[in-house]
Amino acid sequence: MTQLANIIKERRTVRDFTSQPIDMDSLINLLDQAAWAPNHGHREPWQFKLFVEGAKQTLLNEIVKSYQRIGITKEYTEEQLIKYKKVMDDFFLNTPAHLLIYMKKQDTQKVWEEDFLATAAFIQNFQLLAWEQGLGMVWKTNPYIYDPEFCDSIGLAEDEKIVGVLHIGYPKKVPKAKERTPIREKMEVVGG
Ligand SMILES: Cc1cc2nc3c(=O)[nH]c(=O)nc-3n(C[C@H](O)[C@H](O)[C@H](O)COP(=O)(O)O)c2cc1C
């Protein structure tokens, strides 16, 4: 297997991180490298907000407010709320960095989808480059990213859309891989 194939196969989504901090210059360097992702019209649609240090609490506060608004935590009992708060605090405050990736909503479906897909390609480039350096992450698309009030609270304009949030750090635990389906089972060879 080539080195690239090996990194693609070995990379895992990581949800549990050590407290080891991430060097900001190295992180930005990885993002610069990820920007060699294909993107149509050279629009480089990806944009970022990086939450570190005290800003992690600010992000968490806005997510908690969003979940109250959306109704996700509305039916929780007192006991469930305490448990939920602890899980959220532990995850958001102990994970070294939260990288929110967004793009401009485009006028036509074609351009919108091109930009959405290019940003996804960027994210996968970044996941692989980070993995090569021993960094792990989970790419999340939780309900708050579709909450306009949440987007406004973190300073996004109405014509901007969150593609995902990457929670990044050095892995404490790497989950086992789930096997992939052989492509032959998903492909109809037409002709030939
Ligand atoms: C577009 C996208 C959205 C995802 N959203 C979430 C999410 O909201 N929460 C989560 O825990 N994992 C999320 N994941 C991570 C997947 O669950 C993960 O990639 C999958 O379990 C396969 O694991 P692997 O990445 O280790 O191969 C997302 C992945 C992708 C590509």
UniProtKB/TrEMBL annotation:
Signal peptide: none
Domain of life: Bacteria
Cofactor(s) required, per the database record: FMN
The keyword Ribosomal protein is annotated on this UniProt entry: no
Enzyme class, broadest EC rank: oxidoreductase
Keywords attached to this entry: Flavoprotein, FMN, NAD, NADP, Oxidoreductase
SUPFAM superfamilies: FMN-dependent nitroreductase-like (SSF55469)
EC number: 1.-.-.-
Keyword NADP: yes
CDD domains found in the cross-reference section: YdjA-like (cd02135)
Domain Nitroreductase: 8-170
Membership in a protein family: Belongs to the nitroreductase family.
Name of the protein this chain belongs to: Putative NAD(P)H nitroreductase
Provenance organism: Bacillus carboniphilus
